[in-house]
Design brief:
heterodimer; A: alpha/beta; 6-stranded mixed beta sheet; 5-stranded mixed beta sheet; 18 helices; about 15% strand; B: alpha/beta; D-Maltodextrin-Binding Protein, domain 2; Arc Repressor Mutant, subunit A; 7 helices; about 10% strand; elongated
Chain lengths: ~400, ~200
């Protein structure tokens, strides 16, 4: 056994590879002595990683990039040798907003562009009537949830900073906030969308996989200098998480995995809610309508675990689009270098991408993302913040 | 310290007791403008309306992430910065994380002015944790006593023992089995439930 390692996580389904690695013995099989520490906020995870209370963490991919660039906070270079999940978020709306959007939708246009255009009409009508702007909850300023919500509504002509309110809400508060009307909608990861549907207070309008084919969500994050000093530990962690993710993705293991994740010191919600996420079979409406999507959440399938630097480039481009930073060639390089497929490949004795890793990123709106032309990419979007 | 020079401090804490302890401590130290926000709904609006120089929040509060939004909002007049930004004082950061408190300081407040505030928070947070710990222990001691009393009653009835004899039997069994008296008492209660 090696020295004890402490890993922080937020209770969400995409922490599964870390939880299963520890609770099913994949970490011990690599000679690792891992203690998982459940946290209540991304700020805590980030800060405890920064000051060395955590050796590694389940972290929002954009936070790993922001931290490496020193955006919004102290600059701490992060290395992400393993992608803990692709997709997995969903946009859930209140029954009232669902009815309003449905009322404005052009016949049959339930695709993200159709709903975004309908949202724009809802927003315009509310403004005309002098009603309060709609409020959307998301989990963190530097989060895929924030960028996905913005990408979606801006495509329909809704300016996320001018026409609606976007507010940060801790995931465990999302459902209550929707129920008591503090927010009209939210974008959050599993299991909270399903919890809202089960309580009858929300309709899942979109899976994020409707908006983007593949979206890097959470990463296994370590400090760059920790990775440099502990290459063997990083490799062992990658292998443990890899084998855990493979185990999770086997359909015959779904029930057992759901039970492991459901434990009170892990995610702490009913196993059947977690099971839906793992199976990609989600109840999307309180009336019991079920929707199936193989791409809802990818934990190990289709090379989801291999970090893709183009994804990091896309996230950096969103930070520029929404005024969190301005473009610099050096910063783009730094952002992309946070994702470390080289460490992943080295740990697993592989070389290069597999067949499943696409070279590009595409979404339902705008051109295919090219990290060599970030400004050209952003120029194609009408709604964005002024570039300083 | 004059009221004018005293920085405005907002304590974000869902525990009213801890907030009161902290508030009192800060007041005693001469910080007169101390406000408590215990309701997390619309937290940002509440904070903006108070317009503080320093915001203190406990690390167990998920709403810490809500505060991070303050760095983003361009409409905010004054942007706060997180305590962790200045890494020169690693010991103080470590102590505050251990105690479970985090501070956000609005730009412009001098570092030497936040230090006494933070030190005070750390000591009050630690004192509160100790108090809570003692309370827990007292509670569980009370619980134990109840269980032991009921087990004694069962033994007295079933075996015709006096109270003292019943207690001696519990204690000697606990010693033999290297367990706590309360654990033995609990197993007697469980067994008697099963055998009812």
């Amino acid at each position: 056994m090696t020295e004890p390692i402490c890993i922080g996580f937020i209770p969400l389904v995409d922490a599964a590879a870390l939880i299963v690695a520890v609770d099913k013995g994949f970490a011990a099989a690599e000679g690792l002595d891992v203690t998982l520490m459940r946290e209540v906020s991304w700020s805590n995870v980030r800060d405890k990683l920064n000051i060395g209370l955590f050796d590694a963490a389940h972290l929002l991919a954009p936070v790993a990039i922001a931290s490496s660039l020193g955006l919004g906070h102290v600059k701490v270079p992060i290395a992400a040798p393993f992608n803990l999940g692709l997709n997995g978020n969903a946009i859930t709306v209140s029954p009232a907003l669902h009815a309003a959007i449905t009322g404005e939708i052009e016949a049959g246009r339930v695709d993200p562009m159709g709903t975004a255009l309908a949202l724009a009409r809802v927003v315009a009508k509310r403004r005309k009537k002098g009603m309060e702007p709609l409020t959307f909850g998301m989990t963190f300023p530097f989060s895929s949830h924030n960028y996905q919500l913005r990408l979606w509504m801006a495509a329909g002509g809704v300016d996320p900073d001018e026409d609606v309110r976007l507010v940060v809400l801790p995931p465990p508060y999302m459902v209550d906030s929707l129920a008591n009307g503090h927010v009209d909608a939210f974008c959050v990861g599993a299991p909270w969308n399903s919890v809202a549907v089960d309580r009858g207070v929300g309709h899942i309008l979109h899976f994020v996989s409707d908006i983007m084919e593949r979206a890097a969500e959470k990463v296994l994050a370590v400090k760059q200098d920790w990775a440099d000093k502990n290459p063997a530990l990083v490799a062992a962690l990658v292998r443990a998480a890899f084998h855990a993710a493979e185990y999770i993705e086997h359909p015959e293991n779904h029930l057992e995995v759901a039970q492991i994740l459901a434990q009170p010191d892990r995610i702490g919600v009913a196993p059947q809610i977690i099971l839906r996420t793992l199976e990609g079979r989600l109840k999307i409406s309180p009336d019991g309508t079920v929707r199936t999507s193989a791409g809802y959440l990818l934990l190990g399938r289709e090379e989801a675990a291999r970090p893709d630097a183009v994804q990091a480039g896309w996230l950096y481009a969103q930070m520029i689009r929404w005024g969190q930073t301005s473009l610099s060639a050096d910063a783009l390089k730094t952002a992309m270098a946070v994702f470390r497929p080289d460490l992943y490949d080295a740990a697993l004795g592989r070389s290069g991408k597999g067949a499943h890793s696409p070279a590009t990123i595409s979404s339902f709106t705008g051109p295919v993302f090219d990290p060599n032309d970030v400004m050209g990419h952003l120029a194609s979007f009408a709604i964005k913040r002024r570039q300083s | 310290m004059s009221a004018e020079a005293s920085p405005k401090i907002v304590i974000v804490d869902e525990s009213p007791v801890r907030a009161a302890i902290l508030k009192e401590g800060l007041r005693e130290a001469g910080f007169t403008g101390v406000f408590h926000v215990g309701e997390m709904h619309d937290l940002l609006a509440r904070i903006y309306s108070l317009d503080p120089d320093v915001i203190l929040i406990d690390l167990e509060n998920p709403s810490r992430d809500v505060l991070e939004q303050m760095f983003q909002v361009s409409r905010a007049v004054r942007r706060p910065i997180a305590m962790f930004v200045d890494q020169s004082d690693a010991a103080s950061i470590q102590a505050s994380v251990d105690a479970g408190v985090s501070a956000y300081i609005v730009d412009g407040l001098k570092k030497e002015r936040i230090k006494p505030i933070l030190d005070l928070c750390i000591s009050r947070f630690n004192a509160f944790a100790k108090l809570q710990d003692e309370l827990e222990r007292t509670k569980s001691a009370l619980e134990d006593r109840k269980v032991i009393d009921r087990a004694k009653g069962i033994l007295m009835k079933l075996k015709g023992l006096t109270e003292d004899e019943a207690y001696v039997l519990l204690r000697s069994t606990a010693m033999r089995e290297k367990k706590k008296i309360a654990e033995i008492a609990q197993s007697i209660l469980t067994a008697s439930q099963l055998l009812k």
